[in-house]
Amino acid sequence: MVYRSRPTSDSWRAALMGAAFLSTVSVVSAASAQTGPDVARAYREAHEPAIVRDFAELLSYPNRASDTEDIETVASYIAAKLESVGVSSDLLRVNDAPPIVYGRLDVPGATRTLGIYVHYDGQPVDPTRWTHPPFEPTLYTRAMEHAGQPIPFPSEGDPVDPEWRLYARSAGDDKAPIAAIVPVLRSFLDEGVRTTSNLVFFFDGEEEAGSPHLREYLETYRDRLDDIDVWLFFDGPAHQTGRPQLTFGVRGTMGMEVTVYGATRNLHSGHYGNWAPDTPLVLADLLRSMKDPVSGDVLIDGWYDTVDPLGEEERAALAALPPVDERLKRELGLRWSEGAPETLPERLLVPALTIRGLSAGNTGSLARNVIPNEATAALGIRLVKGNQPVHMRALVVEHIRKQGFHVVSDTPDMETRLANERIARVTGGGGYPAARASMADPYVREIITAAGEAADRAFGAGSLVLTPGLGGSLPLYLFTEVLGQPFVNVPVANHDNNQHAPDENLRIANLWYAIDLYAALLTMPANVVP
């Protein structure tokens, strides 16, 4: 059948089909009077079906960091793509780690160097929970939950509806920036447009695994990174209102598991119920002691003591954020939220503790009449600026001890079991701390100005949202700790992209916005004197 695109919303029609996106002065060839954003938009409008198909091809490459063959294949593919648009590319290596896709584009006379970070690996997948295989990209007329229907990929000359959704693992996190960068640079190359900054590309292949080798990479290849003036981290979703945003901090992350023990084997609940310790209940009681179920406040002593205060610019940005809580509650079917009346942005600026998973016996058709001999909880901990993972882990362990548990790190032996009423095995930790950039940094101000002008022209005056901290985590602290360089997080994915979950997706309109925005950032004037 022939698919006819439905009309876009008024806001996105204005954003995507309006006049020139940005009036930033670009360094262009004498033959062209257009700005960089003009050139990128014109290229995109002339090649929309091909850009969508190229994005799908990129998404078809499996990218689990633990699969060496797959990750090498996708890294080589991306490096070749950068080479094809004029970027000198290489695969950087350290022992036993996925490669960093590195690229450099130097511009004669440029006084500023931008570092561009993207990660090309993705979260693990359980294909049984996906509507389509996660590495077989599938195009939909709109979001599945809004009655979207699968359609064929467009051919040359076909219209492309910005409301289409492309479903695949890493569609929103984090291959979309790569799919947007390449056509921007292709359009510049074709039309003789020069970027106004030197560009350094640094694409991580194990971010979803916690980037365990990132410090080693930064230290080993520091000579290739030392001249960067400011980093652009292309990751994360747009604001929940659908408006574009910049963020200036990310939370750190840490995971722990707590296992409590009962008998040495599962026991028949009829024979031993009301006598043997009910391990799931013991675990539930321990978890209940960690967090107030109404306020959401963590009850572990010292939990909030090391939080760094916000600066003046960050406080002002927080106060200016558009309200989103009530809208999100309706969207997500929530009658209440933790911490009310504090808002979501405010709650993202304090350390969080959540229960990522529980394991004890079985449910449904697999439920049995037994008392499980152990029960385990996986704790997810998000850290803010000032928190250190080792310290926060110690607070959790001390809290467990205060609840009357003997804490061990290995499975308890019989002697330990008989000597202690309550035993908890605590494993995990590690992780990394949060990072937050100063919004007063002059290079950061350049990014804010360029992105703000771009957003004004696309969405209307004052549309750019400045968010002091993003809820998700990235290992940005290493860039400030090892290299001492500022950063800005530049997210573009739709906020409902099912990040890390089954049926992850990207709204095509967000890919178009990424192309416009990146073109503006790569051709913004240099105002800071080195």
Properties at a glance:
single chain; 530 residues; alpha/beta; Aminopeptidase; Alpha-Beta Plaits; 2 domains; 19% strand; disordered N terminus
Describe the structure concisely for a colleague.
This protein has 16 helices and 21 strands.
Task: Describe this structure as you would to a colleague.
This protein has helices at 10-17, 36-46, 48-59, 68-84, 176-191, 214-220, 269-272, 279-290, 312-320, 325-332, 344-347, 389-402, 414-419, 442-459, 477-483, 508-522; strands at residues 88-92, 100-105, 113-119, 138-140, 150-151, 165-167, 198-204, 230-233, 245-247, 249-261, 267-268, 352-359, 370-371, 374-383, 406-408, 423-432, 435-436, 465-467, 470-473, 487-489, 505-507. The chain is α/β, with parallel strands linked by helices and 530 residues long. It contains 16 helices and 21 strands. It folds into two domains: 10-23 and 37-248 and 452-522, Zn peptidases (Aminopeptidase), CATH 3.40.630; 252-298 and 351-432, Alpha-Beta Plaits, CATH 3.30.70.360. Strand 15, helix 13 and strand 16 form a beta-alpha-beta unit. Helix content is 32%, strand content 19%.
